[in-house]
Amino acid sequence: MPLRVVIIGGVAAGPKVAAKIMRLNPAADVTVLEKGRFLSYAGCGLPYYISGQVADQKHLMSTPVGVVRDVDFFRKVKNVKVLNETEALEIDRAGKRVRARRAGEGNDFWLEYDKLVIATGARPVVPPLPNINLPNIYTLHGVHDAEAIKALLGEHKARDVVLVGGGLIGVETTEALVQSGCRVTVVEMLPQILRMLDEEMARLVERHMESHGVKVLTNTRVTGFEGNGRLSGVLTPQGRLPADLAILAIGVRPNVELARAAGLKIGVTGALQVDDMLRTSDPDIYAAGDCVESRDLVTGKPCFVPLGSTANKQGRVAAINICGGADRFPGVLGSTVCRVFDYCVARTGLTEAAARAEGYEPVTVVVPDFDRAHYMPDSKLMILKLVVDQRTRKLLGAQAVGPGAGDKRMDVAAMALTAGMTVDQLSKADLCYAPPYATALDALLTAANVARNKLDGAVAGLSAAEVKQRLEARADFVLLDVRGPDEFKQERLPGAISIPLGALRSRLGELPRDKEIVTYCKVSLRGYEAARILQGAGFPRVRILDGGVVAWPFEKVR
Hints:
CATH superfamily of the largest domain: FAD/NAD(P)-binding domain
CATH class of the largest domain: Alpha Beta
Distance between the termini: 77 Å
Number of helices: 15
Strand order of the largest sheet: 3-2-1-7-18
Oligomer: single chain
Shape: globular
CATH architecture of the largest domain: 3-Layer(bba) Sandwich
Structural class: alpha/beta
């Protein structure tokens, strides 16, 4: 008798499990149940479908050669039976069967299994706010949402758009909305957008969005919606925001109700608990994707990180083990990248805030640098941040913001984290170099060397936030700008004085020796040189501003 496998969920992890099982065991009997109409689509591509960069929604559910992954595709090509618009209602673990119902049909039916896979994903958070059910309030969680939003924009029925939530989906979607001629406001209840970043890095993204006409309101809570028959406004304690369209991008929760009702163990994160072979507390039931709890590779603790990339990797592992293998899924780093207009925004591992919360003593560096040789016409700037454990010198996390290719650097950082590398090891990584692709000493390696300098006591730094706090507290220190006079005149930091680097040695007498001196330049390379000059001259308290003017996320003097 062939192996009977029932898979609940047909978007990401589920189809991956099905396809891999059929490659390993062509005689298997595999059935996929999917509640929705669409199968195996790229949910992360929905903002680009709305913008028109993806011309047809079919492209989101097609193979690389353009074949649509629909019911017929799975039946004819994969020999997998797919029942879309079919909801799984109950898991009978004792009888090893699943009760299901087709949309529009009154009669339930049972499917028996030898192995069951739960790939029910996650569902968007929809808060119980007044008038939440008004027309023109959407999430962006499926093709149907994207189609409805795209239709509104195409018919010019939405001009004022409010994105509720400053997470990945909300931020990624702003570009599509601006391109459609909309006035866009992002409302985030926390002090910053993009919690995957540290605050100063998130503020750089926020400033970039504002430069493209997006209004960003942090520390702002939505209290309800108003409208007569259709949405007309979003309510906050600070006032009413006009809105023809609202998109809820607050986040997602794992869809585990079916698993919980079946008595399967739920983890501390609220997602379904699995072992490293993707088995649930029932050895005949596997789970994968956005409904599953993972393990953080840095801390070793349970975490919930819903990503399509993770779902696909987990789907492969589950399939191998269902077919008698012994593959393992080690965990995640939360490696994430998104595009915000022309900015690449990426991270991997722990943020500085998360590292401190976990009890580490992190040392951080912020380093602006070019993604390829600066003399190449297409070179672009990026700002890298590394988080390093002071005790072990191991990399804990990394972030990248800017128009440069930060994704490449985060991929390298992710491998360094996976290998448990120190910044000393990372600084000597043998990376590819040619002017069109990288600098001779790659930006990531430069950042690792700066971290080594800090760890070794060769330089002491202050973050932009720390300098800003000193300025606001009217602390008695010297903020020294060592750029040229023209650069200083064009823009500078509040309260700074100017002594160009080339004149510093001859003007040391102008600086007090009893005060802390913080040096900076455009990217703090000259700032570092200045700090070494001052230290060599016997100045006792010298620091550099990490990242310089480029990485300063606050107001400047112009």
